[in-house]
Design a protein that fits this description.
binds alpha-D-glucopyranose; 27% strand; Jelly Rolls; Immunoglobulin-like; alpha+beta; TIM Barrel; 3 domains
Length: 603
Amino acid sequence: MKTTFSLRIIIPIAVFFSLITFSYGQSVVNERAKWFVDARFGMFIHWGVYSGAEGVWKGEVLRNDNNYAEWIQYRNGIEKNEYLNLLERFNWNEINPEEWVILAKESGMKYVVLTAKHHDGFALWDSKASNYNITEHTNPPRDILKELAIACQKHGLRMGIYYSHWLDWEHEYGWDHSKEVTGITNEDYDRYWQDKVIPQMRELMSEYGPIDLVWFDMWIHHSRTVVSKEQLIQLKGLIRELQPNCLINSRLGLSIDEDSDVDFHEMGDNQIGNQMRDFPWQSPATVSHSWGFHRKDTDWKSTTSLLHSLINNVSLNGNYLLNIGPRANGEVPYEIEKRLHEIGKWLKVNGESIYGCKAFDLPKDLHDWGKITSKKTDTGTVLYLHLFNYPLGNQLFLDGVTSRPTRIYILADSLKRPLEYTHNGASTTIILPDHAPDPFVSVIALEYSGKPQISDGLVAKNMDGGYSLLPWNITGSRDPLKIINKQRGGTVPSHIVINEQTKLKWNIYVDEPCSKTIDVSYSYQGATERNTIVLRAAGKEISHKVSATGKTVGEPNSDWIIDNFKSHRLGTINFSKAGYYEIELEIKPEKNENIKFQWVWVN
Ligand code: GLC
């Protein structure tokens, strides 16, 4: 009685505190997710009975172009009893989950998420609620989840569980997509839920030590599925009751908007972030395409591109959960292991720019050399510039930060030898070594006292030192502009069609007195010579008569005739002193004429 009473008090208090949000670089991170946003990088493990098939069943490759090997039972219509025969291909003497954990640690990953129960319904632990589990089929009996949990504790990694709640191809009343044809009643589906999902989650939350995260996998909203909101709330309530610190992802089937008690947003498969978010989020990603090992899947992403994805996400406040699909002998495919080790080596040197880092206030694609992450320190802030592209000349331009850095160095340099730089207004120019210090991504650290201030709304110099003035980086709202995206494989570039007098404005910062040439690219298909384009900047005005740009051919013999876009020199503008300048372009088509505007290049 006493225990029940105290638990009743403790649980609401714990829940109350866990809901207090605090500013941790992201404005909406609840207390229990603090470790998660610090960690940034985790390991997903897809391993189960399907690993024995490797994407091929009775000589036939998986029946779906989206070759997710863990779907083979459903896709190729394998009977339950035959499916388990795949376990004969496993080498139980070699399978050692601790090796996966060690690999995660060596790769710089801070948490591990194992497919405890995937869609096939087979539990990788000693489940009392269902004998469709690994312990029943191994001799001596194995509990892979327990082994993994112990290894995580031993090596200091956080432990997460993937649990397929919506789909279960094994249980009589579980969901598989073909039930759309055969039908199932809500009552029957609830039998599965109460008979398997709830008791299994109770086991997982009670018998495996602290579970830091549950990864559910319903990738559409519950209203479009057989699962009811009540069932989801029951499941979430059970986790909150038994392990109040455990995180729950949005693929539970409830969006964060609908239920702010969901801890983080899960992106689509291999969907990398494209916008900054204030609450925690994560991209699940593969090294090739399939999650479970598929022997015909050879779409290996390069180490560089995997690192770019990780860095991209951190620069937008997100996490990256990278998958390994071990084989039926426990072995991690060489192509995965090699890349993970390379990432681990990179993180050993550059991890400071990832762990505990967050987005910086500048627009995400402002600089064409790469991405920025930031971190608060006791004395100020560090900005980490990740060079996805290393400048050909040895100058790196950072535009938009008005504070002067106190020190700049290559993060990989343990002596932190200062790099030469100049800072003026909103522009910092850093002198780099001639060759990239890192073969994948070099990182330059800039220290500031306090929070670096920014100047918003500028167009930054590109790597060549010029300014690309485009329809989508104008000052002010782009809404009235109808931007036409590139067409015909990009042979028709992005542009806007201007058929009435239009003024476009951009702001740039020029860091020393100079003269710059101005070019404009457009397409004009008319015949008159009466349309004009006027450019105004630094108190000067240049007027240009629009001339016909003609047609061009994209590919031979395929009727691929398109409007040509051509660059025209407008003239030169003298910027007599360093400072902020507005550049205005006025396009004046005559009645019934139109000009397709592409860009202005200031160099
Ligand atoms: C999809 C697949 C599943 C995989 C998951 C990982 O939802 O159905 O097989 O585990 O993506 O994100």
